[in-house]
Please model this.
Amino acid sequence: MREGNRASMSGRLFVMVLCAGLLASAALAEITITDHNAMLRQQRHAARHSAIPPLATGSHALVDAGGVQYFINDDITFSTSSSASGAMSEASYTQSVAATTSGGGTSPYKLNDAYDGYQTVCVSFTGATGTCEVKNSDFVIYNKNGPATGECVGTASKVNRQYVFGTQVMGPGNALHVFRKVFVPDNEQFARWLNYFTNTGATPLTFNVIVANNLGSDASTLIVTSSTGSHTSPFTDTSATWVTTFQNWGFPAANQSSDPRLGHVLQSGGAPVPLSFIHFADGDDNPYWGYTLTLQPGETRIIMNFGVVQASKAAAKAKAEMLVTEPPISLQCMTPTEVAEVGNFAIQAIPAVSHRGLAILGVLLLAAAALVLRTKTA
Model:
């Protein structure tokens, strides 16, 4: 065999073996959405509580990659709309950040006091809209469903990043089964709510899902902008995919605002279950929005929302826009089945090759390389 041909063949074999080795390694080491959630299913219900201990009675805390600490309601036994299972009672920075000022500059400040009951979810079987009310028979609040189970161990923090709350039955014949999950990543800056609705009855079931909120900004609440470009008050445009808000300037100084700047991610365009109603207003920190669901017997739908906490209006807007486009990072700790069941986002399928498939492909490449080598040296 000529030296040039032998060298060329050796180079090709080296590439084939390298590719096979990389694929085999990926089969053992790569974490895809599908495989990561297979591990989650094995971990689920292994413990009744997350690895993160409660910081206060009825709450758990998770810190995102931007240093925002979120307090999640858990195992609260009294009934108020702000204490509902899986709602958030607080979101604050754990360190000073470059908070924007009214003049366009920044000032170091430890922004705090977002959320006094954010993402309460309730259901109406009467067609009612509006904020969730405890003593109103038109609304059934998802409430008193703890303690939650922790799952989805983070990549950096090595603790559970998601809480799974218990099932609550409601509606005619208790046919509607509802539960929710709350997720805060350690490699990104947002919080995510997955609200699950399953019709266990024998006939179709129609109802309104309402997300009610207390932003913590009281009468100083202002709409900043929305995906439509409008900040008209009241804001009622159901085509909006996101809205941003903040507490008006004036504390602790005239040109400062001590609360984080907030984004509320509601839906994407082209989703099978769009917004049915929405209400934001200046001077009112209790916005709400909702969706009308019709479930066939045995059908499950998920309503997914994101909360954004940032140090500037521009950053809140940018993060909200990013989450609407649904990059894979926003779907962490979700199975392909869960992704397919989301109703208010039109999510493109995420291709994934299983570890078994990668391993088989790696073995086939190694066998092909060995066969070529044997043929050439025979």
